[in-house]
Amino acid sequence: MKKQIIRGLAALSIMTFASVSQGFAEYTGSNPLLQTELLPYGAIPFDRLTPELYEQAVKEAIALQNQNIAAIVNQRSVPTFENTIVALDRSGDELSRAMLALSNVEHAVGDPAMMQVMTNVTPLLSEHEASVLLNDGLWQRIRQVYEHRAELESQLTPEDLRLLDETYKSFALNGAALEGTDREKYRRLKSELSDLNVKFSQNVTNGMADPERRLWVTADKLEGVPEGIMQAARQEAKAALEAEGKADDESLYLFTVYAPSYGPFLKYVKDRDLREKMYHLYSTRNTSGDYNNIPVLIDIANVRREIANLMGKDNFAQYQLQHTMAETPENVYAMLHELRDAYTEPMKAEVAEIQEFARQTEGPDFVLRPWDYSYWSDKLKSARYSFNDEDMKPYFEINNTIKGVFGLATKLYGYTFKENKNIPGYHPDVKVYDVYGPDKKLLGILYTDFFYRSGKAPGAWMTEYQTEVKDDEGNRTIPLISIVCNFSKPVGDQAVLLTPYEVETFLHEFGHALHGLSAQAKYASLSGTNVYHDFVELFSQFNENYLTEQEYLDGFARHYKTGKKMPKELLDRFIKSSQFGAAYNCMRQLNFGFLDMAYHTADKPFRAGDDIEAFEVAAIAPVQIFEPEPGCIISPAFGHIFSGGYAAGYYGYKWSEELDADAFAAFKEAGNIFDKKTAARFRKMLESGGTVDPMTLYLEFRGKKPTVDALLKRDGITPASK
After folding, report:
1. I need a surface site. Which of 96, 100, 437, 647 has the fewest CB within 10 A?
2. What is the value of pTM for the model shown?
3. Percentage above 70 pLDDT, the chain
């Protein structure tokens, strides 16, 4: 999983934080999760919570929101923007609080008890969501206000009108306009889909932790593996043997399918047979056994199709893309094909060159396979540029890197960060920071959870526990934002050194965090990261551009032993080596995008027993890199589209890459990567959230529509001078 964002359940985005409207029931119980006054700024009292309290909080919050929805529906007043649209936006703060905390902790901790809580509350939440979205009395009030929109234009602000439009569309797209038996069918399908999403996600998590997905290796097989990777594998072996009640054996090293272990194994282990074995362990996850996701994904795809058909669409992609920048499957495919056409030949040239390089060692008949790419591309980069990721790690000591990543927000926007040891985290690894704006006022609270733990969901993500909003007097609710990563844990007194990819991941998630922290919206459903999904990645991917800028790196990237700055020639080699793999990386992302769209534009339902492997091979054929490897498929572990909210939306990463490259080009054109005027315009987009149409926001920032040109230049596909 490359990157992941958890923002709670998407369909509940219209029911998030804000002050409780007059006449609404307020929480008066004793559950600490729902008591916002226990800690400053409404911070979550994680140190007082148990799995049982999370479950209780969700149930109590559902009941409370039901009371508040009833208050809206049963009032005698004529429906107005204030008593219906605003009241709805402000109706479910407790439920959002409970679910956002539960969903993140369940992913980050991997506690079976928390997984069970999620399993227990999911059907309750699905039923509640349906009861709100399909509440005919509520829908009729929303519809009546919307039908008088023209009369309200002179009375409401643009943000008010945006909330009205988005609320109406959200309900209409979620079945409110359906009638009779169609409503009940929609309710049933949504409940079924929610359960399936949770099952898929938990199967992926449990499948990663399966002891059969590990590889025990002795030191003689690890020639050339960096010392830090060796130490982490030795620690992993020691912990596993201890957990199994066995004596430690210092000759054994343990590698797993988790990212901090799997990636370095394929990159550095010389033994091709071991690399192939590890690749198969990773690429056959969730294809059989107790955690087989193939039947689950078939059911998910079919339920989504049924929902789309019920809503008058031919397929789920048509239905899902209505509320995006892309708008239609045709526009998505146009973008995917444009990138495919631009990157295919450079990718083929890259792979051919790597294979030819490997043949100098392996012989003339050697054929590059997927488990060879990382190893031999790294060798070629080392030979050509005298570079591999390990060369940069000494300059990315984690504490300096944290200061440097935070410092990007200081240089661009004037934000400052101060650790707050009085606010608890949900795990000892979690650190909490107060974030201050350029006016020295508190902007938000940031939770960080950087290190890999057994059971922790793979990948990295940003979430929020409390969304920024303003009440009628302009008082701002402080946002509570969290970023979670899976960096290698410290081993003894050894310094934690990050790879360039890990720093890129950190910058990415920090960009999402800044989106939430910077929010200046009146309404929760329009605040922060509550934007179209193919716009949200702009702000994370934009940050990644700074990883290749010497001026930025000079501020923090210093050798952890000597204190010297990163040499320019090392950075130049990194940029050239990164461009070398750019075409391959793009095509790999297009693999995911084409596969996602294939599932969600399929012209007929899937059947139990369908050959999903054959379907996947056909779907990614237009962007195929290697000959298919029997039994190795992406789909059963593709959490982004089957449980992570990116269904018919994975294209958004590449869509946003075009945006972020074009946006960063604006700073380059200004002659300063920290240009204050350009940063101020970019910050306005951060602050605006979903209060303005994204293309309108972007045009205001850039003065023109984005093109693919800057991306092609950045990746070295076209000359920088062109």
Report:
1. 437
2. 0.83
3. 96
